[in-house]
Design brief:
By secondary structure, the chain is mostly helical. The chain contains 4 helices and no strands. Helix 2 packs antiparallel against helix 3.
Length: 97
């Protein structure tokens, strides 16, 4: 089975804004220095995004905004120890495959 265009489009946009340092959910957070220096933090962001995102039976993305929020909340909590992710992550959300 191939990935749907809907998923590929959502993932591409998420990657672009994460890599450019302009993700709107991470305003005022300098996270670009993590790329190359702390790759496991970035790896976890993308793992959360892909674990949380849901597709319908036609492959259309159903919860892109929520998947991005869960993923970016991880990065915010990684950079800011005072930030608490709500609700806390479940094991399946942060699992690396």
């Amino acid at each position: 089975m191939k990935l749907s265009n809907s998923f590929k489009s959502s993932l591409r946009r998420f990657i672009y804004f994460m890599a450019s340092g302009t993700h709107r959910m991470l305003e005022n957070l300098d996270y670009l220095e993590l790329y190359g220096n702390e790759p496991s933090a970035i790896e976890k962001v993308f793992a959360i995004y892909t674990n949380v995102i849901e597709l319908d039976e036609t492959g259309a993305v159903q919860n892109d905004e929520y998947a991005q929020k869960r993923a970016t909340d991880y990065l915010r909590s990684y950079c800011d120890p005072d930030f608490e992710v709500e609700p806390p992550y479940e094991d399946w959300e942060i699992e690396l495959h």
